[in-house]
Amino acid sequence: MPHDLRENEQIVQLAPASDGLVRFIGRIRTPWTDRADCPRQERIDGHDCRIELDPDWQDAPDGLDAYGTVEVLYRMDQSRRDLTHQSPRSDGCTLGTFALRSPTRPDLIGTSIMRLPRIEGGVPHVQGLNCGDGTPLIDRKPDRCAFTPNAPEQPGDIQTV
Amino acid sequence: MPHDLRENEQIVQLAPASDGLVRFIGRIRTPWTDRADCPRQERIDGHDCRIELDPDWQDAPDGLDAYGTVEVLYRMDQSRRDLTHQSPRSDGCTLGTFALRSPTRPDLIGTSIMRLPRIEGGVPHVQGLNCGDGTPLIDRKPDRCAFTPNAPEQPGDIQTV
């Protein structure tokens, strides 16, 4: 989707992105087929959506059902990447890209924390997404608040300031 | 850092990642130069760390100081990407990659929520990171809990189930 510059918005001149490669590991299924219909912010009491993994990864989700909330990363692939100052209200007032949760940002990565009411046929059903149907999935992991590391302690665990 | 397979861990055969390109927008400065010294999990009362943007983006952070907490995305670039089942305790018991917050995951992207006590000379100082010094920065944005969209309403905002 093109994003025409609004009054006072600013961009940066960017060389092609090249520092790291992302692999999409699946797709997100939501009720919104048009970006203009998406909620602007996730709602934990929102619509039923599905987090579908590609076949390569379908063996992997063992254990996710131990968590009631899950964090999902996805690619907001209809946005531009070069805006430094954005005008969300198109009124000439701008905020820095890193002071917004706008989908318009250099690496197009969105994150949501969502409720995980159930897993059906290996597919997590969630509430709390606001992205469009078919959005590329980058990652999913337990919500940090519910997660306790399983690995042995490391020195930094007990380091004090 | 190589990750030798532990008992019962499983991998998937992957073609090179190619779906999306990530641009690193800066570096994270932390006290930990060796991965083995990092805390396994972020601590909101943890050490002072810095989120440094590359020169291209240094004009952009306007407005971040309105938030007491900030979300940061970064690349855990010392990990392997192909593990489907991991054994955090090296004891033969495994969990699926997507049921862990392990740095070993397909797209190597870590997320942290951290306290933002101050910005000095345009550089946010934060507490709550656990990654190594020099970790590539992918994004930073206000914590979702503190953020209210600035943009006009969209139909999905008021959609009910």
TrEMBL record, chains A, B:
Pfam families, sorted: TrmO_N
Root EC class: transferase
Keywords: Methyltransferase, S-adenosyl-L-methionine, Transferase
Catalytic activity, EC: 2.1.1.-
Residues in TsaA-like domain copies: 22-152
Record Gene3D superfamilies: YaeB-like
Single Gene Ontology MF annotation: methyltransferase activity
InterPro entries, per the entry: TrmO-like_N, YaeB-like, YaeB-like_sf, YaeB_N_sf
Source organism superkingdom: Bacteria
BP GO annotations: methylation
PANTHER family documented for this protein: TRNA (ADENINE(37)-N6)-METHYLTRANSFERASE
Family label: Belongs to the tRNA methyltransferase O family.
The protein's name in its UniProt record: TrmO family methyltransferase
Organism listed in the record: Sedimentitalea xiamensis
